[in-house]
Amino acid sequence: MREKGMRCGFLIIVLIMSAFFLPALATAHETGTVDVSSSLNVRSGPSESDAIIGSLSSGSQVSYQDEGNGWASIEYQGQTGYVSTDFISSGSSDAVSPASVSGQTIVIDPGHGGSDPGATANGLQEKEVVLDVGQRAAEKLRASGANVIMTRSTDEFIELEERAAIANREGASIFVSIHANAAAATSAVGTESFHFPTSSEGQRLASAIQTELVSELGTRDRGVKDANFSVLRNTAMPATLLELGFITNPEEAERMKSSSFRESAANAIHDGVSTYYAN
After folding, report:
1. Is 36 exposed, middle or buried (0-12, 13-18, 19+ CB in 10 A)?
2. Structure pTM?
3. Which positions are catalytic?
4. What b/e sequence results for 222-260 when a residue is b if at least 16 CB atoms lie within 10 Å of its CB, and e otherwise?
5. Which domains, ranges and CATH numbers included, belong to the chain?
6. Average pLDDT for runs of 10 along the chain of length 279
């Protein structure tokens, strides 16, 4: 009778431990990098027949849970999405070491300024939004040991060529230009990042920051694209131009007015830059 009681007690302990530990195992997440020629479709379910709800750009880092049968679930813009594991290379880490930023010379370029307000809509001026975000990002990067140089720290006009020249003179290791987007269609939304067409390091930098921006801001991922912009063409180091969101969209403009949006954007820039150096 005593032996039977001991067995029952043992089974109860096993069941209790299983209740605690099995869910933790089931929800274990891995981190990988999107490895495709263009972009990876995010679907509403684990099947090619399920609807496409978005996409992830090549080089993006993603936290995912392997669901088996070649599919993984991810958190995508506040909902669960599914991606093919055939295009995710595992082994990268979420961990970002502030030490990787320490000692780096980084140029932060808040777009427009002074007589050039940039995009203007919904009670916002682009030059004000991006200066605030740039100052916040610079502060965070400096706290991680970086030598941060801003092309402008006040409301002043700086020529495009001079912005690139500042970075070149200072021997910067990367250049990050911050902007807010505009479109004739007020329905246009989302975040996108640009690099010079022939710069693979610029693409890697843009991808690292784009991933963090979309994750932090919860905006639509418009992807990483190449462009022949002056500040990308004339800089002698990896460079990216970020479009945080659309001032012309009433909802995104309202979010851009908030301190929380600007702080999240600054955090994303810091974390994306840190990821770039760490890898």
Report:
1. middle
2. 0.67
3. 243
4. bbbbeeebebbebbebbbbbbbbbbbbbeebbebbeeee
5. 30-90 (2.30.30.40), 98-278 (3.40.630.40)
6. 50 47 49 70 89 74 82 77 86 49 96 98 98 97 96 98 97 98 98 97 98 97 98 98 98 97 96 93
